[in-house]
Amino acid sequence: MMKTALLGATCALLISGSALAQTATPGAGGSAETEMSVSTKDVFAAPPAGTDANTVGSIQPKDGQVLVTNFIGQSVYESDKADAATVGKVNDLILTPDGKIEAAVVGVGGFLGVGEKDVAVSPDQLQMATRSDGKTWLVMKATKDQLNSAPAFDRNKLAEGVASPGASDSGTTAPAGGGTASPPAQ
User: Fold this and answer.
1) Is residue 88 part of a domain?
2) What confidence score (pLDDT) does residue 82 get?
3) Mean pLDDT (whole number) for 34-60
4) Cα–Cα distance between 33 and 35 in angstroms, integer?
5) Where is 77: in which H helix or E strand?
6) What element of type H or E holds 138?
């Protein structure tokens, strides 16, 4: 019992010592941070008319609106019938520079995500089916065979996305006030 406790304490000290050695300290190495130029632009389209865009928290939910997070990971079915087969899952949504949804990226094929292929489909290919009890699900105007034979979507050709202000070209992100580096969110 004593050997186990001693071995555990020794491992904990070794691991924490390595972690402390990897922690970056602000201003270490004597190099001064260079200030990079920054430009900003609107990411999404302007809010609807009658909305005060300058007041934080002024936009409230309205009937018919749906959160994008409700789509990601949802199964897509071949029809609105109760026995409809799954054709894939929504893996992502592609936005235009003005914030409109241009395509849905649907993962098809594979098993538990292994061997899965992403296919970008026009948003008008997806429909929301609603049963009389209020339950909703996604329906696609394409078959599983059509999706499997469609060309794969290459997400590497899109812009990087959103990173932290301290992001560097090396793909790591450092908080603006210094500290330890972490990878950007994917």
Assistant:
1) yes
2) 83
3) 71
4) 6
5) strand 75-77
6) strand 136-140
| Confidence band for 62, pLDDT divided at 50, 70 and 90 | confident
> What is the distance between the alpha carbons of residues 118 and 121, in angstroms, rounded to a whole number?
10
Residue 103 has pLDDT above 90, yes or no: yes
Total domains present in the chain: 1
Does pLDDT of 105 surpass 90? Answer: yes
Helix (H, G, I), strand (E, B) or coil at 2: helix
**Residue 109's domain is classified under what CATH number?**
2.30.30.240
Note down the domain range covering 129. 68-152
Sheet holding 75-77, edge to edge: 117-121, 101-108, 86-95, 75-77, 136-140, 126-130
Query: Among 79, 61, 92, which residue's Cα sits nearest to residue 186?
Result: 92
- Mean pLDDT, the chain, integer: 73
